[in-house]
Design goal:
single chain; mainly alpha; two-stranded antiparallel sheet; 2 strands
Amino acid sequence: MDATFARDMWKVIEPLHAVTYFAEECRTANKDVGLKGFWMGYFGSRGAPLGRVSAGTIEATFFGFHPARVRRAIPDAWDFASPESILAARSDAAGRALRRVFPGIEDVAAEAAPLLQEVVTAADGSGRPLFAANRDLPVPEDPVEALWQATTSLREHRGDGHVALLTAEGLSGLEANVLVSALGVVPPDRFHESRGWSPEEWAEAAEALARRGLVAETEATEAGRALKARIEQRTDELAAAPYAVLADPRMLYESLLPATRALASEMPFPNPIGLPRPA
């Protein structure tokens, strides 16, 4: 399976998954289930498939967030709402958000959800904790919720592989953020706001990357750009393999594209995910 196809699939899968962060239905659902504030909602909802895990587990698997931001929410989140109740709330809210934003999502789900589930089943969970935890959840009976859950599993599969590659290159979560910013993908202030790092910590990480020859002042060097390109290429290659189970993977991509374009209205651009606006 071609790595370019895996990147195309990321661009259509990510917006479907990301309603859980940006859609009002999902933010309200986290509040209604008992989670306090946006960040407890974020860490609790995304981390719920792992069970009642420690803050350290969330730090390690989510990657890139300031430990203090995580520890203000975890493990306290599990005292406000059980992972089981959070999982039910996030699935229902995501389904409602997708229906609101793209009324044709029922037809898309009927066609795409079973194919995405085939890919999920074919994917290797070795070394991919967030993917494996999501894969092992029961497939929702509601087809739109099933679509959302499958896209969530596959985006976490890609993300787990990406984190493994970043750590293999000796990059911390903060340094990975700085490098992305130095490439002009995401402005530094967006990372300060979303990931919780102070300007002083950001500057220290930039100095560490400068010593490695990866950034110069606020811009990535040729070596930095080459390193990031290698990581992205390998991320795509690792993410591509499960799609080989499909007879016509491109048909799956085409079926998801209209919903993805509609969902652009729910996301900020630029965003901390680094997702580009749909063409």
